[in-house]
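The instructor's notes for this session suggest beginning with a concrete chain rather than abstract definitions. Hand out the sequence below and ask the class to guess, before any prediction is shown, which regions might be ordered.
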Amino acid sequence: PVGCTATIVANMHWHRKVEIPQAIAGLLLSAILSDTVLFKSPTCTEYDKKTAKKLAELAGVNLQEYGMAMLKAGAGIGDMTPADIVKNDLKAFQVRDYRIIISQISVMDTKEVMDLEDQIIENMKSVCQNEGYNMSLVMVTDIIEEATYLLFAGSPRTLIGEAFQKDASGTHVYLPGVMSRKKQIVPPLSEAVKKIKN
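After discussion, reveal the predicted structure:
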């Protein structure tokens, strides 16, 4: 497994001795940097890093400088509405009997998103009611601090408390070191469901 499909695509080119043009190298590099959050995500592998280094040379860019500039460019909420934030990078999961959606927004400063928390939560509740989900989760991930505010709406709330060993009486929990939905949010939820059901 690798942190980004672009790592596989780039290496398929090299394996078959197919040259990667500068613009395509830049595009593949951008995908790796985005998916691995400049190598900070726990999904990132050494293979991703080696591939990105090679692609940066082909694209003619400084890896760290380009990576930071790219993350900054995509890290603000801009003109996104609370409804847009709730649907941003949304993925649906079936965790035992529960239908759960998890969205994620990566930012340099979480304050601008957290200032909209009440409106975001209202939109999350609407999505659950209108689209038949048990729970809606929104990960507000701080790229610099490498941590996530996990906003949640729906039920059972005990699932959040059990999964992350946090007080889930509010509308969010703070999760230091958490950046990956696939590796750090879904597995604890799956384990928590088993405990709640027993």
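Then share the key points. The chain has a mean pLDDT of 94. DSSP finds nine helices and five strands in the chain.
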